[in-house]
Design brief:
Shape: elongated
Distance between the termini: 13 Å
Order of helices and strands: HHH
Strand content: under 5%
Structural class: mainly alpha
Radius of gyration: 16 Å
Length: about 70
């Protein structure tokens, strides 16, 4: 396996892990505040945790995409 392939595999695994964390944070938020008014729900720790994991997931998939774009010529 090439260095690039190893980096892609690691980036994908990390992004998938963060995606799972994001989904768990979203579920936690919805369970705790799903019926709350949006203005109030957005002030909660669960909402901020969800948004933090969402940003981390977006960043991880962005890094994965950048690595995909840098695939060495065969």
């Amino acid at each position: 396996m090439s260095d690039w392939e190893e980096r892609i595999k690691a980036a994908e695994a990390g992004a998938e892990r963060l995606q799972a964390e994001e989904e768990a944070a979203e579920a936690s938020f919805k369970a705790a505040h799903g019926d709350a008014q949006p203005q109030e729900a957005m002030k909660t720790q669960e909402f901020h945790s969800w948004m933090a994991t969402r940003r981390a997931t977006d960043d991880a998939w962005g890094k994965w995409a950048t690595l995909m774009d840098s695939k060495p010529a065969a």
